[in-house]
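FAQ

Q: What does a record look like?
A: Structure on top, sequence underneath. For example:
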């Protein structure tokens, strides 16, 4: 079967950048070319696809509705190309073991665990990659991937880590300022910090869920800051900005050190557990097997 004729790679690259910025000037700056070159490549793409992709209004250029879906697929294609280059670059990497993990899971739980492990294995080189993007399913460029829920189903091998729970926390200074904060009814009137888990995880616990669990009608919750990472939400709570819903594994050390205070024994379990995943061949390494056992052993504290 003859492969379909594709537009030029350069035109697609310009289109991918322009679709994100909707600015010829910003696209030119991002790619290091002139604005005229950007406009020319956008015209080339329309000619090569045989379709109108843009709505030109005055000095502005906008994507037509059908072009938005096309742009999404093109961007995913360039991400795949970037991942392929990453695999090639990793061939020169001297790290013994590479670990990819969700950002907050890495910074708030895994990194301290690995710090302890490396104290006893100082000759082992580790590479840590903090990202929401799941690596290729066979983990060609990564020894381990730590992820959440159904994402683990895509990998050849996985091991359960723990199923976490959330509860409210605040800084000692915040508790001093609002002594009644431990009362859920009063808590609903104070600054609440939120985490936006993203569209793929709408089932993760929110403040509304926690108040319902406590049989409290909070009415209209006060507006508070919303963060894209739970680690950022917790940093805001530590700084005294408000009350956060915290995962047990993410705040264990903060509770122990007194940087945060747990406000209620009421908690909600996360809908799904965290997993550590790996691909073919990973277990041929003694270091990888030892580290896997260390991580899963450390995870039992929260399961």
């Amino acid at each position: 079967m003859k492969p379909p004729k594709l537009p030029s790679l350069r035109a697609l690259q310009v289109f991918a950048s322009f679709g994100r910025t909707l600015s010829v000037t910003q696209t030119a700056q991002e790619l290091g070319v002139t604005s005229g070159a950007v406009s020319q490549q956008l015209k080339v793409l329309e000619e090569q696809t045989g379709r109108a992709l843009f709505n030109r209004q005055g000095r502005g250029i906008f994507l037509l509705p059908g072009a938005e879906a096309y742009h999404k697929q093109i961007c995913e294609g360039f991400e795949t190309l970037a991942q392929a280059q990453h695999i090639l670059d990793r061939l020169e990497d001297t790290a013994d073991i590479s670990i990819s993990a969700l950002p907050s899971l890495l910074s708030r739980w895994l990194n301290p665990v690995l710090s302890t492990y490396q104290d006893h294995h100082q000759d082992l080189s580790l590479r840590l990659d903090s990202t929401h993007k799941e690596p290729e399913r066979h983990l060609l460029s990564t020894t381990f991937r730590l992820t959440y829920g159904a994402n683990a189903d895509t990998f050849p091998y996985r091991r359960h880590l723990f199923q976490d729970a959330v509860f409210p926390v605040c800084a000692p200074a915040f508790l001093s300022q609002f002594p009644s904060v431990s009362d859920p009814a009063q808590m609903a009137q104070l600054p609440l910090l939120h985490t936006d888990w993203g569209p793929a995880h709408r089932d993760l616990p929110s403040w509304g869920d926690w108040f319902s669990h406590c049989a409290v009608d909070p009415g209209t919750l006060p507006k508070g800051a919303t963060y894209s990472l739970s680690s950022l939400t917790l940093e805001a709570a530590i700084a005294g900005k408000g009350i956060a819903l915290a995962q047990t594994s993410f705040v264990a050390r903060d509770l122990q050190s007194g940087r945060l205070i747990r406000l209620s024994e009421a908690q909600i379990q996360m809908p799904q557990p965290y997993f550590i995943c790996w691909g073919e061949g990973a277990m041929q390494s003694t270091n990888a097997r030892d580290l896997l056992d260390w991580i899963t052993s450390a995870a039992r504290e929260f399961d």
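Q: Is there anything notable about this one?
A: The chain has three domains: 9-90, 97-163+272-302, 165-269.
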